[in-house]
Amino acid sequence: MKIHTRLNLFGLAMMAFAGGCSKNESPAPDKTQPAASASSQTTGAKKHKGTPDDPYVIGMSQCNLGEPWRAQMNDDIRKAAEKHPNLKVIFKDAQNDSLVQRSQLEEFVNQGVDVVLISPKEAAPLTEPVAKAFHGGIPVIVLDRALLKEEYTSFIGADNVKIGREAGKWVAETLGGKGNIVELKGLMTSVPGQDRHRGFLEGLDLKAHPGIKIVFEADMQWLEPNARKEMESALARQPKVDVVYAHNDPGAHGAYLAAKQVGREKQMKFVGIDALPQEGVQYVKEGILSVTFQYPTGGAEAVDMALKVLAGETVPKKVTLATKVFTHDNAAAGGQAIP
Ligand code: FRU
């Protein structure tokens, strides 16, 4: 108990030194989520003083850097951390390999980082390594892709079931009760892929809309080239496709390119998720996608939270980020928030 109090006081002093972190408050933490109990949280045995001469070290393991959304997350982390001279971030790129990502966690532990951030590729292979680091006393903040157990300090991400459900409702309304859908799924060993699929089916409500059919579905593993290939197969088999629902914008764009190649892109609407300004939102403005749903990276929020954890503050076990919808009508005005 005494130790805990001392850590808190030390942490608060460090917070004051760092100029606090209120600038990076999470935009829309879900207040309905219970806060972590003190016992499920670790402040960790800090390895660094948290001064400009001996900054706190955050280890960030990114599952890959091949997609613009991931580069954006790292940029958001970098920019938020730059505001704090008492913080240093070490970035590692797991190159879309869960085993590599596992060993990166071990390296961070051996290296003596103060906090680990991880955006895991897949749930199953990374659940135990994250739990091990956490139980070993290192605070771990998981970003964007959930794990199978909640043995970490906190999870930050948007609600993928809700995003999928909104996409499903949009498609059902747009089709007016009749039409053929191609669904290009994200990696189905990652939780966002599973949730975006489940939510979509809920929003689509096929029982209430017997004229709507999912005529082709495939796992494109979040990757544009895969989506393009899968869409080529879908088009070869299906003479009539009305909507393509892809679990991310690169997937929707890949599908668009496949349809364009055979001159069919105007016969169908493309729905994506992520809404990066330079990617999905731009596609919407250009009329390539009809709609995209924002999936915020949570990078700035993660840095903010790491500072709080280092200051000995209790943080919520889960932070749910808000989402927005972008259509041709509202994209220029910055999209519309989904309550
Ligand atoms: C990037 C990405 C995003 C997607 C997220 C889901 O790797 O595929 O496009 O929204 O991961 O975890």
UniProtKB/TrEMBL annotation:
InterPro entries: Peripla_BP_I (IPR028082), SBP_2_dom (IPR025997). Transmembrane segments: none annotated. SUPFAM superfamilies: Periplasmic binding protein-like I. Residues 1-18 form the signal peptide. It is found in: Cell envelope. Residues 24-54 are annotated as: Disordered. Residues 58-313 form the Periplasmic binding protein domain. Gene3D superfamilies: 3.40.50.2300. PROSITE patterns: PROKAR_LIPOPROTEIN. Keywords: Signal. Residues 34-44 have a biased composition (Polar residues). Its main location: other. Belongs to the bacterial solute-binding protein 2 family. This is Substrate-binding domain-containing protein.
